[in-house]
């Protein structure tokens, strides 16, 4: 099995005709994703050929869903238009909206997150500023390279796109049910806890790998959740042990103030919940390998 995304997922791409949308839709199709159309109000009714497949461009998400039965949207829309694009997906009640766009203002992300809640959480948001979600051998919604690993029994949830790819490569001999890149912005849709809950319920996921980073308290809250609700082995890694205090490191949410949000504090919280935490990504992968082979 897989979480959030499987071989039956029907994907539309908001921003399909832009350079990023076209490039990554081509890769998603090559990975076996079932892309059924695109959305661009200015090019509604046109068709484009991507990866040898002819795709219709619709004016709205709602139109695309009615015409194709789409249940997933991947959003490659520039930051200043992203809020409206996500709200459009939420209003159409699409099941999954994967927001790849980087640089969306935090107040815009907070607005569309609150809008999703007000609409009854009918749309799961992944991101923004994330690599997306991949269920190897089934489907790929986003920018995660599909050729670095295959299907297996590890579930991965990560704030960092680059570390997502590294962990998948390190554990390519075992493979993954699903890898979810949740993004590192201060306001995101799907959290570590959401993914942990889904992996716990997925019978094919035997070990969960969780990658966090400095800033905020998401990892500490995840540790509390693991302690109370997760029975499967969880292996963790926290990026940012050498980050200087008060400096934003890469992600907008990766900023430490005083002792709050430090890698050490997160590591200690996770270990107190029974999570084995690696000092490096490679060590973390080895810990996961030992758990899966146990």
TrEMBL record:
It comes from Prauserella flavalba. Succinyl-CoA synthetase functions in the citric acid cycle (TCA), coupling the hydrolysis of succinyl-CoA to the synthesis of either ATP or GTP and thus represents the only step of substrate-level phosphorylation in the TCA. The alpha subunit of the enzyme binds the substrates coenzyme A and phosphate, while succinate binding and nucleotide specificity is provided by the beta subunit. PROSITE patterns: SUCCINYL_COA_LIG_1, SUCCINYL_COA_LIG_2. Its EC number is 6.2.1.5. It holds the Pfam family Ligase_CoA. PANTHER family: SUCCINATE--COA LIGASE [ADP_GDP-FORMING] SUBUNIT ALPHA, MITOCHONDRIAL (PTHR11117:SF2), SUCCINYL-COA LIGASE SUBUNIT ALPHA (PTHR11117). GO terms for biological process: tricarboxylic acid cycle. GO terms for cellular component: cytosol; succinate-CoA ligase complex (ADP-forming). This is Succinate--CoA ligase [ADP-forming] subunit alpha. Belongs to the succinate/malate CoA ligase alpha subunit family. GO terms for molecular function: nucleotide binding; succinate-CoA ligase (ADP-forming) activity; succinate-CoA ligase (GDP-forming) activity.
């Amino acid at each position: 099995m897989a979480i959030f995304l499987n071989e039956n997922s029907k994907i539309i791409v908001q921003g399909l005709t832009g350079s990023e949308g076209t490039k990554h839709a081509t890769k998603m199709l090559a990975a076996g994703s079932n892309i059924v159309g695109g959305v661009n109000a200015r090019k509604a009714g046109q068709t484009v050929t991507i990866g040898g497949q002819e795709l219709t461009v619709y004016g709205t998400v709602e139109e695309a869903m009615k015409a194709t039965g789409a249940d997933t949207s991947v959003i490659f829309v520039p930051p200043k238009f992203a809020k409206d694009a996500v709200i459009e997906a939420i209003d159409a009640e699409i099941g999954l909206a994967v927001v790849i766009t980087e640089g969306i203002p935090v107040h815009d992300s907070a607005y569309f997150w609150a809008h999703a809640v007000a609409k009854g959480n009918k749309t799961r948001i992944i991101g923004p500023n994330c690599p997306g979600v991949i269920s190897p051998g089934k489907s790929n919604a986003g920018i995660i390279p599909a050729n670095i690993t295959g299907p297996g029994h590890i579930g991965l949830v990560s704030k960092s796109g680059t570390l997502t790819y590294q962990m998948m490569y390190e554990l390519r001999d075992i493979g993954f049910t699903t890898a979810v890149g949740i993004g590192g912005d201060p306001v995101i849709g799907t959290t570590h806890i959401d993914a942990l809950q889904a992996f716990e319920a997925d019978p094919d996921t035997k070990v969960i790998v969780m990658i966090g980073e400095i800033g905020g308290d998401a990892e500490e809250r995840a540790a509390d959740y693991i302690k109370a609700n997760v029975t499967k082995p969880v292996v963790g890694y926290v990026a940012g042990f050498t980050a200087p205090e008060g400096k934003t490191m890469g992600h907008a949410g990766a900023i430490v103030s005083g002792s709050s949000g430090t890698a050490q504090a997160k590591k200690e919280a996770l270990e107190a919940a029974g999570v084995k935490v690696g000092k490096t990504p490679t060590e973390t992968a080895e810990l996961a390998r030992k758990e899966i082979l146990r």
